[in-house]
Amino acid sequence: MDWVPLGRTGTMVTELPFGTWRFGRETDEGSVEIDETRAYELLDAYEAHGGRFIDTADMYGGGKSERWIGNWLADRDREDFVVASKIYWPTRDDPNGRGLGRKHLRRQVDAILDRLGTDYVDLLYVHRWDDETPVEEFMRTLDGFVDSGRVHHLGASTLWPNAWKVVRANAVADRRGYEPFTVVQPRYNLVNREIEGPFLEMCESEDLGVVPWSPLGEGFLTGKYDRDDVSNADSRAAEDDSFESKYLTDENFAVLDTLQEVASEVDATPAQVALAWLLHHDQVVGPIVGARTVDQLEENLGAVDVSLSDDQFERLAAAKSGPFPDIVDSPARGDR
């Protein structure tokens, strides 16, 4: 797995971050999607394939994700890994137990570091925007974390379509001498293309690295769904009543047709090609991969070995109609 720059920062990361949002997550039926034993197996497999960029959040699994990552890191050299976490969601049942207010941020950064068993996180995202807290307040508080060494870099997650809010926050940071946002984490994949246009243009203008979540469209781009039989008991469709209306559409199946054609041409799986498309995108640092099993994870990590031609990249980009700008000057990161 190659090492690539984390946006315009001086930190290098492996090109496929590992997402841990399923760690300790309880379903509505009361089962746990990924338990502690399986979490360690997945982290072991990720490490064995050269992965060193781990993504979590304070609310994943009610804190279990961070705690299990911390336990796993305790047997390793912390300096070998880049760890990203996120902050915003409620953690206490009181008015100051959520958002980006100073009281909540300071309490939660301490809790994040305690669960991870580390003195610092490499990247801290604001998980959502907080319109009730002045930008100057939370940017100053976040800057204080960087000054103290508890956080190395700042990011903003899931902020589309509010590109202007990122610009405003970075303008405040520039004016006040605070640490700016240098990375964003939006949803982006071959069927969810809403960030193309103003958001990606903002990222280019602000020189922000893009680390997409849901690169496989909640599993749709793995190719396990069929037009004639959309039922799949072991799938997101069985868990989410809105999945069918969001993903199982004629327009998206047309994208899947093109994806499967290209996958056949390069002798790879649809999931690997969908990830490779993002890896070849010149604004993407690396898409966050997740998995329920080691086999799924290893398949996804195989995307780093998939090479796409200019024509294949363009065919995939053009597979979904919409008001998308031309994003294909040339495949990113050379001819991989």
Automatic annotation (TrEMBL):
Q: Which GO terms describe its cellular component?
A: cytosol
| InterPro entries linked to this entry | AKR_Detox_Biosynth, NAD(P)_OxRdtase_dom_sf, NADP_OxRdtase_dom
Q: Which residues form a coiled coil?
A: none
Q: Which CDD domains match?
A: AKR_AKR9C1 (cd19081)
Q: Which domain of life is it from?
A: Archaea
Keyword Calcium carried by entry:
no
Membrane-spanning segments: none
Keywords, alphabetical: Oxidoreductase
Any one GO MF term held by the record is: oxidoreductase activity
Sequence ranges assigned to domain NADP-dependent oxidoreductase in this UniProt record: 16-319
Pfam family of the protein (one) = Aldo_ket_red
Q: Record keywords: Oxidoreductase included? A: yes
Q: What is this protein called?
A: Aldo/keto reductase
- Record organism: Haloplanus ruber
